[in-house]
Write a structure and sequence with these properties.
The chain is an alpha/beta fold. The chain contains 12 helices and 11 strands.
Length: 392
């Protein structure tokens, strides 16, 4: 029997034990020596712990260990199956273990980008590949497409939303329970995440997708300890990946032909013969940005509206249309919300808000950088001028 004891108090020092100990973070072997025993529990495998040690976690001793415990305090015990505490290097991933978010989305073009991703991740030193680009340009969609269509040799293939350190930990914990379902509701979140990192560190052939990384520091502890598999990162950040020796793919908007194809495939679903007059003008107005096109196409389908009708609405109320999510879609996945996040981040850079307000008065064409030159350049490296252009 294996016992997960949250609090087992003993007035004396610890006695000799041997076996597996999971004290919140993974499996280790420990040997401790103490003096007298306080009491006994049924079973042939347990551990005597001290009041000062405040031992917490899963404890298993050797075959001849005596179940001893302070008779005064028994906090909580959870009986685990033998498989739950075996070393991570002995845990094999179930065949075909896969978790990929958003792989059902409509996908067009990007053949060259998929080839470049495959080349980066299959190369001898290609441990990390990063897909970078504007919000709504299709980074996550590209990663999901690669993971579903070109990841056959990898197992497991696991998707983690990585916009915060807490989200990374939660995703790793989910991987741990997918590898060993018997650990579900047994170990705390931190222990599950640590066990997943330990598993990744000693097994080859896996693919991890870390989606929407907002700060490389959130994933650095994970990447510092795993080098036997492959990691695909998506992020709006174009810099900061050199410390991981990552190959960076800068993702651009769709071509005009791809943009029209995406609009058409979504807009005509359930509407054979739908009026698509003005499709070319609409995708151009939307800047060939995939998320904006998906948002507009879903609106066309749901409201049985032609592209020219959407152009009229866009001209009359751009703020409303860019912020309107299709029925059934996430309200957080609209162009207005995506860019609001980007602008909020940019305002943390000194003087950037002032520059953006000035540039907003210019036509939507390439703006010469020389227009920004007359202002004296501050010496501080943290100013806008030392980081221009913004990478987000």
């Amino acid at each position: 029997m294996y016992a997960a004891a949250q609090e087992l108090h003993q007035p004396a020092a610890l006695t000799a034990i041997a076996g597996l100990v999971v004290a919140g973070y993974g499996l280790t072997r420990r040997t401790r020596t103490t003096g007298e025993r306080s009491g006994a529990l049924h079973g042939d495998r347990s551990v005597q712990v001290s009041q000062k040690a405040a031992n917490r976690g899963i404890v298993s001793t050797g075959d001849r260990a005596i179940n001893t415990i302070d008779q005064r305090t028994i906090g909580q015990q959870t009986v685990l199956p033998d498989a739950a505490v075996r070393p991570v290097n002995e845990v094999a991933a179930p065949r075909g273990l896969m978790h990929i978010a958003g792989h059902q989305q409509v996908f067009v073009g990007r053949a060259e980008e998929l080839d470049r991703l495959e080349e980066a991740l299959r190369s001898a030193g290609g441990v990390v590949a990063a897909v970078s680009g504007l919000g709504g340009v299709g980074k996550s969609t590209l990663a999901a497409r690669y993971a579903t269509t070109r990841s056959q040799p990898f197992n497991p293939v696991w998707w983690i939303t990585a916009d915060t350190a807490e989200a990374v930990q939660s995703g790793l914990a989910a991987l741990a329970t997918a590898l060993q379902p018997e650990l579900t509701d047994v170990l705390p979140l931190e222990a599950l995440a640590e066990r997943a990192v330990a598993w990744l560190g000693c097994h080859p052939g896996w693919l991890l997708v870390l989606d929407n990384v907002t700060d490389p520091a959130h994933i650095a502890p994970l990447l510092d300890r795993t080098s036997t598999g492959r990691v695909l990162v998506t992020s709006r950040l174009g810099e900061g990946w050199h410390r991981f020796d990552a190959q960076v793919l800068l993702l651009d908007v769709l071509t005009a032909e791809q943009a029209v194809e995406l609009l058409t495939r979504i807009a005509v679903q359930g509407r054979p013969g739908a009026d698509l007059d003005g499709a070319d003008e609409l995708v151009a107005e939307l800047g060939y940005l995939p998320l904006a096109i998906e948002q507009a196409a879903a609106y066309l389908r749901q409201n049985r509206l032609p592209p020219r009708g959407y152009l009229d609405l866009l001209a009359a109320s751009p703020a409303v249309m860019y912020d309107r999510a299709p029925r059934g879609a996430s309200a957080e996945r609209t162009i207005a919300r995506i860019w609001r996040i980007t602008l909020d981040q940019l305002t943390d850079i000194p003087r950037v808000a002032q520059v953006l307000r000035v540039l907003a008065w210019y036509a939507p064409e390439t703006i010469p950088a020389a227009l920004l030159a007359p202002s004296p350049i501050p010496q501080s490296s943290t100013t806008l001028w030392g980081r221009w252009p913004p990478t987000t």
